Amino acid sequence: MVAGAFPLAKLLTLGARQLSRPLAARIKAGARASPFFRAYICLPPAQLYHWVEMRAKMRLMGFRGAAVKPLNEEAAAELGAELLGEAIVFGVGGLCLYLEYARQTGQARRREEEQAAALREVGERLERLREELDAMAAAGPEGAGPFGMVLGTEPKGCGGEVHKVEMGPGSWGDGDRA
Record's Pfam families (predicted)? Predict the structure, then answer.
């Protein structure tokens, strides 16, 4: 799904948003031409938008009880077609945003499931190793440690001698790793 470092999903999202603008323009042109679309789809939202906008402007200027005169049919159809076009572009953008969110959540969920499976596998392997270690300890001579050494004795070849290692400058013992 990735071509190089550029995700294909983002390219498709950008393409969908770019295609929504001509689609909105075509729908706006159809809305202006069709009497049904014009009367029932474009005019009511345009008149409502105009009424809300004018009431807000009048209140800001201090007029309280003034009535709002409705737009004429031609201006309302134009405003309604513009509102419809913007709603389509906004809707396509919102849909693209939702789809990207859903894709990202799906990836995060899959990643978490993979990590949980790997953790379970490591836990199972640790448990098997513990069982093997217990079996080896039980099978060895009494008092034997996990590596076959009898506890309380020295390893072979040591001879009881203590070996001192000198740590000079540039060695790992003085803090600077060379």
Answer: OPA3 (PF07047)
Q: Which residues contact 73 (CB under 8 A, 6 or more apart)?
A: 43
Surface-to-core class of residue 105, CB atoms within 10 Å of its CB (0-12 exposed, 13-18 middle, 19+ buried):
exposed
Query: pTM, whole model, 2 decimals?
Result: 0.56
What amino acid occupies position 14?
L
Question: Of 44-53, 103-112, 149-158, which gets the smallest average pLDDT?
Answer: 149-158
**Which pair of structure tokens corresponds to residue 42?**
């474009």
Q: Write the DSSP assignment of 94-135 as a string of letters.
A: HHHHHHHHHHHHHHHHHHHHHHHHHHHHHHHHHHHHHHHHHH
Tell me how far apart the alpha carbons of residues 47 and 45 are, in angstroms, rounded to a whole number.
6
Tokens of 77: 């159809």
Distance of CA 25 to CAs 19, 39, 53, 140, Å? 10, 18, 24, 85
